[in-house]
Specification:
Layout lengths: L5 H15 L5 E2 L4 E2 L7 H14 L15 H14 L4 H10 L15 H19 L4 H9 L1 H27 L4 E6 L2 E8 L2 E7 L7 E7 L9 E2 L6 H13 L7 E2 L7
Antiparallel strand pairs: 1-2, 3-4, 3-8, 4-5, 5-6, 6-7
Helix pairs in contact: 1-2, 2-3, 2-4, 5-6, 7-8
Length: 261
């Protein structure tokens, strides 16, 4: 009798989930029965199962755990889902199930907005539940979020270089907006209701832009976080780094024309 491969077992689990949902699943992370299915998730599971089933890569190779390469297969699958004509029906079904959302990219931080954040979290969770491989969740989340981590590292450098100089001044100011030019990158700040938005941008409206939001009582930058962006991560990093490389707090001057971006 032919031994069932890890790939075949996983594809079968995906198909079962696509058909009946997650009520019967055992969650190895929270050690409980039942998995709360999100909108569109069963549609994606059906597509992933079909993609993996058609994949020529065997389910077991020389004793290597097939799941170690699953992150790469999932990224390839989502690229096909978004771009290939053969997945048009899947895209339409997903948009209906999610009430208008498009299938996002798993690694490109600028494709999918806030919906992408939800999907990468849920896919990493679902894969872990279906496979029983608990180590997969942090690996997948780390891989899917790699570009965001690069942007966050650039921001954390700016926090050390510029934020901790500027935020105490902003806290004392009565006006809301400041603007500074650092090479090709403009930094705008806008304070309102206890929050301060730091927006890095180039060019005119619709150009590359990345925004972080901070608490105006947080002088150290520990409670700051990013908004979703439509700008590729390399350009986000370049803009933030350009401000840090050319930082001079005196360049940040009052601008009453700035509004919330």
């Amino acid at each position: 009798m032919k031994k069932t491969s890890a790939k075949d077992t996983f594809v079968a689990a995906l198909r079962r989930f696509a058909e009946v949902g997650g009520d019967e699943l055992w969650d190895p992370i929270y050690e409980r029965k039942g998995y709360r299915t999100c909108r569109g998730e069963q549609t994606l599971a059906h597509g992933i199962a079909k993609y993996l089933d058609d994949l020529s890569i065997p389910g077991d190779t020389l004793g290597i755990n097939w799941y170690h390469d699953l992150h790469s297969h999932l990224v390839d699958a989502f690229v096909e889902f978004r771009t290939h004509e053969k997945w048009e029906a899947l895209r339409k079904a997903y948009k209906i199930k999610t009430e208008g959302s498009e299938i996002p990219d798993l690694v490109e931080v600028h494709i999918g907005g806030l919906h992408r954040l939800h999907v990468i979290h849920q896919i990493a969770y679902l894969v872990t539940v279906l496979s029983g491989e608990v180590w997969l969740r942090p690996k997948l989340e780390g891989y899917f979020n790699a570009q965001q981590h690069c942007i966050d590292q650039a921001w954390e450098r700016f926090v050390r270089v510029g934020y901790r100089q500027l935020m105490p001044r902003i806290k004392k100011e009565s006006h809301r907006g400041n603007r500074g030019q650092f090479g090709e990158t403009t930094l705008l700040t806008y304070a309102m209701a206890g929050r301060v938005m730091f927006t890095f941008l180039r060019g005119k409206d619709g150009g590359p832009m990345m925004t972080y939001v901070a608490d105006d009582s947080d002088m150290h930058g520990e409670r700051s976080g990013s908004n979703a962006t439509t700008t590729p991560y390399a350009e986000c990093v370049a803009m933030i780094d350009e401000v840090s490389d050319n930082w001079d707090v005196a360049k940040m001057t009052q601008d009453n024309q700035i509004e919330m971006l």
